[in-house]
Write a structure and sequence with these properties.
This protein is of the alpha/beta class. The chain is 57% helix and 11% strand. The chain contains nine helices and five strands, in the order H-H-H-H-E-H-E-H-E-H-E-H-E-H. Strand 4, helix 8 and strand 5 form a beta-alpha-beta unit. The protein is globular. The two termini are 33 Å apart. Bound molecules: CO-5-methoxybenzimidazolylcobamide. CO-5-methoxybenzimidazolylcobamide (B1M) binds next to helix 4, helix 5, strand 3, strand 4 and helix 9.
């Protein structure tokens, strides 16, 4: 019975149907299904599938955006219930995420945030056009494990380096001098692995699904 519901959940995300995803999340709760199971055995499978089909050219940008919205609608129903019942998802790590200063592209960054959240990371999404000091402040405030920097323009990629330098200057990236050592993951269409290496970022991913694997790797998981 739950198996069927899990499949329908995944399908609602694949179809990008946010209303249906929210309704199925409510139905799962009404049937006593654990919110965590609904996320991990249902909705996440859908968003992973869409990511795969997008990567091989079988799905397109609107499909990704709608899948992200559907996933968010489901999580919005399930997360308060998890808090109410005290069902804590195993938290894998804290990620401060944003699109760098001067850049207002948000779709890819938001997908990365959704995928990280769905897979157990606590994400602090600072939005777009985020001033460099804001990343440092937030990383310090929440004791971030990872700072994730998205940039879609060749002219704004350099702001990723600025953030890394600011984190270095704030002493947040050296374990010896500070209780936390923040790692940095970068991404966005013009960003490459060699750019990541050049600016000293520990992590790089070219897509949202890969970002989850990279974040886990940075956490030593
Ligand atoms: Co703009 N834009 N845009 N744009 N835009 C690009 C990026 C561009 C390549 C289009 C082109 O010319 N072919 C070009 C950049 C050229 C360059 O610098 N090399 C460009 C330009 C020039 C501009 C403006 C300057 C246009 C103008 O005003 N003259 C302007 C800049 C505004 C600004 O930021 N200051 C601008 C504006 C816009 C819109 C506002 C209209 C809109 C954004 C709407 C929004 O986000 N709400 C927009 C869009 C939609 C695009 C394109 C068409 C699509 C971007 C997108 O959402 N892709 C884009 C062309 C393209 O990329 N094909 C383009 C889908 C998204 C799922 O992918 O964001 O790459 P992406 O994210 C992926 C990966 O990159 C990765 O995972 C994501 C999911 O798989 N990823 C990460 C992203 N962040 C990551 C972080 C990680 C890890 C992985 O770790 C932290």
């Amino acid at each position: 019975m739950s198996e069927e519901l899990f499949k329908t959940m995944a399908q609602s995300v694949i179809e990008g149907d946010a209303d249906r995803a929210g309704e199925l999340a409510r139905q799962a709760l009404a049937q006593g299904i654990a919110p965590l199971d609904a996320i991990n055995q249902g909705f996440v499978l859908g968003v992973n599938e869409v990511g795969k089909q997008y990567a091989c050219g079988d799905m397109f940008l609107p499909d990704l955006v709608m899948a992200g919205e559907a996933m968010k609608a489901a999580v919005a129903v399930l997360e308060p219930e998890m808090q109410r019942t005290g069902t804590e998802r195993k938290m894998l790590g804290k990620v401060v995420l944003g699109t760098v200063k001067g850049d207002i592209h948000e779709i890819g960054k938001t997908l990365v945030g959704t995928m990280l959240t769905a897979n157990g990371f606590q994400v602090f999404d600072l939005g777009t056009d985020v001033p460099t000091p804001k990343f440092v402040e937030k990383a310090r405030e929440v004791n971030a494990d990872i700072v994730g920097l998205s940039a879609l323009l060749t002219t704004t990629m350099t702001a990723q380096r600025d953030v890394i330098e600011a984190l270095n200057e704030a002493g947040l990236r050296s374990q010896g001098r500070h209780p936390i050592a923040v790692k940095v993951m970068v991404g966005g269409a013009p960003v490459t692995r060699s750019w990541a290496a050049e600016i000293g970022a520990e992590g790089y991913s070219e897509d949202a699904i890969g970002a989850v694997a990279v974040a886990k790797q940075l956490m030593g998981l």
